[in-house]
Design brief:
The strands form three sheets. Strands 11-10-9-12-8-1-6-7-13 form a nine-stranded mixed sheet, sandwiched between helices. The radius of gyration is 21 Å and the shape is globular. It is α/β, with parallel strands linked by helices and about 250 residues long. The protein has one domain (about 1-215): 3-Layer(aba) Sandwich (Rossmann fold), CATH 3.40.50.620. The chain has helices at about 35-55, 70-80, 95-105, 125-135, 185-195, 230-245; strands spanning about 1-5, 10, 20, 25, 35, 55-65, 80-85, 110-115, 140-150, 150-160, 160-170, 170-175, 200.
Length: about 250
């Protein structure tokens, strides 16, 4: 089984959000970066479980600059066999997806896995774009996956319940909570990661199509307002005011 896991670098969840350059760029000064948890905890670990069961190879891919190598090495320490970094400062979702698809197109991967979203932009776009560019089926928000030969059975979260589907052949899958359990790299894995191949290649996909005009922080949260249960007129008035703001 030949698997590709797409990983991205995101700010730590406790990071303070601030912008610079007239609010057009995220201020990363003093920020700790991590591998996107949905990519690491669920997509990567599930890929490792599959090859441990049936044999095969797990390749991780990242689109980004050399500073991203630290999270790629962590993926190798957790258990990935090899890695590829496309040397490109991350742009919009389509640029990232097109570079991943261009690499994957001739490699005959059985499954392409990635987290359901990144915890910084929460766009949940790249997976669907990769699938479209590769002309492969796309299953999003997967919480369970079983592979039996060429047949895969997938459980995915939907509004109000779950959906179970089966698919033959290659596909792209985005991982949600429950697909696997987080793994912590041990000392042996960390030492082995230093000698695992990390190939750096130039950009091979489309150019960036989106220009950021401005980032805006959300307004501060207002305090809780308590209303006497007998004062329905006041409740109606406040609901009307809230709906006008929204």
């Amino acid at each position: 089984m030949n698997l590709l896991v797409c990983i991205s670098k995101t700010p730590d969840t406790t990071s303070k959000i601030a912008f610079k350059s007239d609010d057009t760029e995220y201020n990363s000064d003093g920020i700790s970066f991590i591998m996107n948890p949905y990519d690491e905890w669920y997509a990567l670990v599930k890929a490792l479980e599959l090859v441990e069961k049936d044999g095969g190879n797990v390749t991780v891919i990242n689109v980004g600059p050399a500073s991203n190598d630290i999270i790629i090495r962590k993926a190798l320490a957790i258990g990935a066999n090899d890695a590829v970094r496309i040397d490109l400062a991350s742009g919009d979702s389509f640029q990232i997806a097109s570079n991943i698809a261009a690499f994957a197109r001739s490699k005959n991967f059985d499954i392409v896995l990635l987290g359901k979203e990144t915890i910084d932009y929460n766009g949940s776009e790249v997976g669907a774009m990769v699938a479209e560019l590769l002309d492969l089926p796309y299953i999003s928000y997967a919480s369970h996956l079983e592979v039996n030969g060429t047949l895969s059975t997938i459980t995915r979260d939907i509004e109000g319940g779950v959906e179970v589907c089966q698919i033959e052949g290659p596909f792209v899958l985005s991982a949600a909570k429950g697909l696997a359990e987080q793994r912590i790299p041990n000392m042996k894995g960390i030492m082995m990661a230093k000698n695992k191949p990390l190939e750096v290649i130039p950009p091979i996909g489309e150019n960036n199509r989106v220009n950021t005009r401005k980032f805006i922080l959300p307004g501060g949260k207002s305090g809780v307002k308590l209303i006497d249960p007998d004062n329905m007129d006041e409740l109606v008035r406040m609901l009307h005011e809230v709906s006008k703001v929204i």
